[in-house]
């Protein structure tokens, strides 16, 4: 995602998938390789990750946590800042309502980025929503001396 003069545009969006029948360590290794290639190619300043607060399915929570950890580690290793936002923070930033439905978020992502169609699969729209959240939140967080994606007050930057 790129933002120039208050106008955001998507550079790329997609989903990394791994074979469901593959062992978890191999799936995580594939994820790391793919993320490493993407970060090297796109050279982002920031990598934004969804902070998972609650999952009713412990197995899902574990796999999401493992994948998030791989994403954060890969980004840091390649010199990127990493920022996390909860799904409610993303929904609020993108739609103006923290309880928005997935469909409402997808429609707003499409509208805000002036896309012809809703990004597919839905996880691609979620990734774009995370980026839009960061682009809209980071300037205010800096003004308030907060690290983006954090409620912890930080020292003012020069």
Question: Key terms for this structure?
Answer:
Nucleotidyltransferase, domain 5; globular; 158 residues; 51% helix; single chain; 4 strands; mainly alpha; two-stranded antiparallel sheet
Report on this model:
It is built from five helices and four strands. It is mainly alpha-helical. The chain folds into two domains: 23-85, Ribonuclease H-like superfamily/Ribonuclease H (Nucleotidyltransferase, domain 5, 2-Layer Sandwich), CATH 3.30.420.10; 86-145, 2-Layer Sandwich (Nucleotidyltransferase, domain 5), CATH 3.30.420.10. The strands form two sheets. It has a two-stranded antiparallel ribbon. Strands 3-4 form a two-stranded parallel sheet. A hairpin with a 2-residue loop joins strand 1 and strand 2. Helix 1 (24-42) packs parallel to helix 2.
Q: Give a quick account of the main beta sheet: strands, pairing sense, barrel closure.
A: 2 strands, antiparallel
Distance between the termini: 26 Å
Q: Helicity level, as a percent range?
A: 40-55%
> What do we call the CATH homologous superfamily of the largest domain?
Ribonuclease H-like superfamily/Ribonuclease H
Strand fraction equals: 5-15%
Adjacency order of strands in the biggest sheet: 1-2
How many E strands?
4
Q: At the third CATH level, what is the topology name of the largest domain?
A: Nucleotidyltransferase, domain 5
CATH class group of the largest domain: Alpha Beta
SSE map:
Layout: E1 2-4, E2 7-9, H1 24-42, E3 46-50, H2 58-77, E4 81-85, H3 87-95, H4 102-112, H5 122-143
Parallel strand pairs: 3-4
Antiparallel strand pairs: 1-2
Helix pairs in contact: 1-2, 3-5, 4-5
């Amino acid at each position: 995602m790129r933002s120039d003069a208050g106008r955001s545009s998507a550079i790329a969006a997609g989903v990394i998938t791994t074979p469901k029948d593959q062992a978890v360590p191999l799936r995580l290794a594939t994820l790391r390789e793919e993320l490493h290639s993407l970060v090297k190619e796109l050279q982002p300043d920031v990598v934004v990750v969804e902070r998972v607060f609650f999952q009713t399915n412990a197995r899902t929570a574990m796999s999401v946590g493992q994948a998030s950890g791989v994403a954060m580690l890969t980004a840091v290793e390649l010199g990127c800042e990493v920022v996390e936002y909860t799904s409610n923070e993303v929904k609020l930033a993108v739609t103006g309502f923290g309880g928005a439905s997935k469909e409402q978020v997808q429609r707003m992502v499409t509208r805000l980025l002036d896309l012809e169609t809703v990004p597919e699969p839905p996880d691609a729209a979620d990734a774009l929503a995370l980026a839009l959240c960061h682009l809209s939140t980071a300037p205010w967080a800096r003004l308030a001396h907060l690290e983006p994606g954090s409620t912890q007050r930080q020292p003012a930057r020069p």
